[in-house]
Design goal:
The protein contains six helices and 17 strands. It is of the alpha+beta class and 311 residues long. It has two domains: 44-191, Vaccinia Virus protein VP39 (Rossmann fold); 197-295, Lipocalin, CATH 2.40.128. Strand 11 (232-242) and strand 12 form a beta hairpin.
């Protein structure tokens, strides 16, 4: 009887230990998998639409994060003459993608590596393509925003937190292996420059030299603008930011609607001004007299929902 009690106790202890180890391993595996995305093929028509949306040409360098069988970079190379590479954690998929590139005759322009996307140098990219889970997009957001202003980003299905896309649409996706609707979303962004601040320039108006002051507040690529002419408020019809290019349309007394368009270089905006429908463009330059923080730069880091991880 005593022996059976001891055996039962030993068995219970063994089972408890196995369960504890199993739980620890399971938790570790889940933690290791966090930030990874399961492989799901992007239908070819969606690949084509994503490349169309980003206006990929032979001048572009495309980096695909989570490249799967390689079809995104291979298509960019074969159909559009672009160069680039893809990264994936699955070595079998990396081998498949490189084999597919060789079969397509674009192995010199489309290469694939077994690499963590968070350890990948994305600085050569003019275009980034992604088909990642929303929380992975959010984890990668700060790295994407740190790319050169003007870099284009196009995503299949999922957004990047509260960073509103420039373009978003839904399309048919026949053969899509997930979901019941056989639909896909395409989302597109251009990495914005930081242009928040107070800008000033002088111009001839009504036969005299006048000073224009423009205040730009920024959240991602969205601008809010107010303007003054010699200290008096003037109407801002439109203010947009695309990469490094700022376009602002003001309603100026005696001149009417005037478009100011320039690209930032250090603390200057250099470009041209054009009176709506009246004459040719004239060279224009503004100086930043006060530097302000963009709202998205000083916002608290996002909370990644699973495991409460912050970035």
């Amino acid at each position: 009887m005593q022996m059976r009690k001891m055996a039962g106790a030993l068995l219970l202890a063994l089972v408890t230990m196995v369960m504890a180890v199993s739980t620890t391993v399971s938790t570790a595996v889940r933690a290791q998998d966090f930030g990874d995305t399961p492989y799901v093929q992007t239908p070819q028509n969606v690949v084509d639409a994503m490349l169309d949306t980003a206006k990929v040409t032979g001048k572009d360098y495309v980096i695909d994060l989570g490249s799967g069988d390689g079809r995104m970079v291979i298509t960019a190379a074969k159909k559009r003459g672009a160069r680039g590479f893809g990264v994936d954690l699955d070595k079998r998929l990396v081998k498949l993608a490189n084999d597919n590139a060789r079969k397509a005759g674009v192995a010199e322009r489309a290469k694939f590596y077994a690499r963590d996307l968070f350890e990948t140098d994305m600085s050569p990219a003019t275009v980034i393509t992604i088909y990642l889970l929303p929380e992975v997009n959010l984890m990668a957001r700060s790295r994407l925003l740190a790319l050169k202003p003007g870099t284009r980003i196009v995503s299949h299905d999922y957004g990047i937190g509260d960073w509103t896309p420039d373009i978003e649409y839904e399309m048919d996706a026949p053969g899509k292996p997930v979901g019941r609707s056989q639909k896909s979303k395409v989302l597109y962004w251009v990495v914005p420059d930081i242009v928040a601040g107070r800008w000033s320039w002088t111009m001839d108006s009504a036969g005299k030299r006048q000073t224009v002051e423009l205040l730009l507040q920024q959240n991602y690529q969205k601008l809010q603008a107010t303007a003054k002419l010699d200290g008096r408020a003037v109407a801002v019809e439109r203010a947009t930011l695309t990469g490094r290019t700022v376009d602002v349309t003001l309603q100026l007394p005696e001149r009417g609607r005037v478009l100011f368009s320039g690209r930032r270089s250090n603390q200057a905006l250099d470009g041209e001004m054009r009176t709506d429908g009246k004459g040719a463009a004239v060279r224009w330059s503004a100086a930043r007299t006060e530097l302000l923080d963009a709202a998205h730069v000083i916002a608290p880091p996002p909370v990644i929902r699973e495991y409460g991880i912050t970035q």
